[in-house]
Design brief:
Bound molecules: tryptophanyl-5'AMP
Number of strands: 5
Distance between the termini: 27 Å
Shape: globular
Radius of gyration: 21 Å
Structural class: mainly alpha
Length: 332
């Protein structure tokens, strides 16, 4: 049984990119593997955020993960800040990776390298993310394409630490889906669909009602010409729609293109497939909203199970790095 771990930030409303790039695969991993999924609330603090709504967002993301199909009897679901080992191991990772490596992270470059006032936490974010993963001896980390570089840094950090201090960490691998690993904004198909960039018409939310999904897909920006062809370089809009269809129906985007004579019929098929795929998620979300106590219990049990794994790893790493252990060890 492989150990699988992944996380999602608790900022903004979850969208189709999160679902297809990540959550849907998380759901399949829980069937066969020892899986841990968490809500990265500490990561949400690396950019400006509303303190009065962070707790609510974290809770809502937990609800959305259960709605997406995570089953707490098959996997462990928890909140990052409830497991203090994450921030403690992050320090060891910060003392393992270099300043140069962190400056080369594209997400940092895109979001704030130019800005003196940017939070230091945004800069060290990848070290915390590496700690998130290494604490659980994760073999596989199912993520979308945008997280590949962070996973590479995590592997480098694990290898370097092991080399310096002895074998402590499992070196993890990214598991990125074949299609829809980078779902693009429906209005600006050269930009990825994102929680942080406001593009209401270009972002299909995971819990959008069917009419909204249909409207957004109908208005999706397509490319010049009329031919339906899979070619992300010259036809980004159409190719994005074909990838969505492929991901939702299980086909291949290139082969699917042959079945459509014009953009209108493609959009209709995409909207139908997305509505059908997301209907059960919406249904479960509605049920879950009626029992908030259930979510609280899931997170409480999840944190306990997570700490049982994270504590011993932290202890191992602190000792290997040469710190003087307190009488009861570093965990707890
Ligand atoms: P986050 O919260 O931005 O996104 C959660 C997951 O959704 C995927 N994703 C996408 N996939 C396809 N197309 C898109 N447009 C799209 N947008 C987002 C992301 O790749 C991700 O898998 N740093 C992480 C959270 C994190 C984490 C971790 C993940 C913190 N610690 C440890 C794995 C392991 C993030 O910001 O994801």
């Amino acid at each position: 049984m492989a150990r699988v771990l992944s996380g999602v930030q608790s900022t903004g409303v979850l969208h189709l990119g999160n679902y297809l790039g990540a959550f849907r695969n998380w759901v399949s991993y829980q069937e066969h593997d020892d899986a841990y999924f968490f809500i990265a609330d500490l990561h949400a603090m690396t950019a400006e955020y509303e303190a009065s709504s962070l707790a609510r967002s974290t809770f809502d993301v937990a609800l959305d993960l259960l709605a997406a199909g995570l089953d707490p009897s098959r996997c462990t679901i928890f909140v990052q800040s409830h497991v203090p080992e994450h921030s403690r191991l992050a320090w060891l990772v910060e003392c393992t990776v270099s300043y140069g490596e962190l400056t080369r992270m594209t997400q940092f470059k895109d979001k704030g390298a130019e800005n003196e006032g940017v939070r230091a936490g945004l800069f060290t974010y990848p070290a915390l993310m590496a700690a998130d993963i290494l604490l659980y001896d994760a073999d596989r980390v199912p993520v979308g394409d945008d997280q590949r570089q962070h996973l590479e840094l995590t592997r480098d950090a694990a290898n370097r630490f092991n080399h310096r201090y002895g074998e402590v960490f499992v070196v993890p691998e990214a598991a990125v889906p074949l299609f829809a690993a980078r779902v693009m904004d429906l209005q600006v198909p050269t930009r990825k669909m994102s929680k942080s960039v406001s593009s209401p018409l270009g972002t299909v939310q995971m819990l959008d009602p069917p009419e909204e999904i249909e409207r957004k897909v109908r208005k999706a920006v397509t490319d010049t010409g009329t031919e339906v062809r899979y070619d992300p370089a010259t036809k980004p809009g159409v190719s994005n729609l074909l990838e969505l269809l492929a991901a939702a129906t299980g086909g291949d985007p290139g082969a699917l293109a042959d079945g459509f004579g014009d953009y209108g019929s493609l959009k209709k098929a995409v909207a139908e497939a997305l509505v059908e795929m997301l209907a059960p998620v919406r249904g479960r979300a509605e049920e879950l909203r009626r029992d908030p106590g259930h979510i609280t219990r899931v997170l409480e049990e999840g944190a306990e199970k997570a700490r049982a794994v994270a504590g011993p790893t932290l202890d191992r790493a602190m000792r290997a790095a040469g710190l003087l252990a307190p009488p009861g060890g570093f965990a707890g």
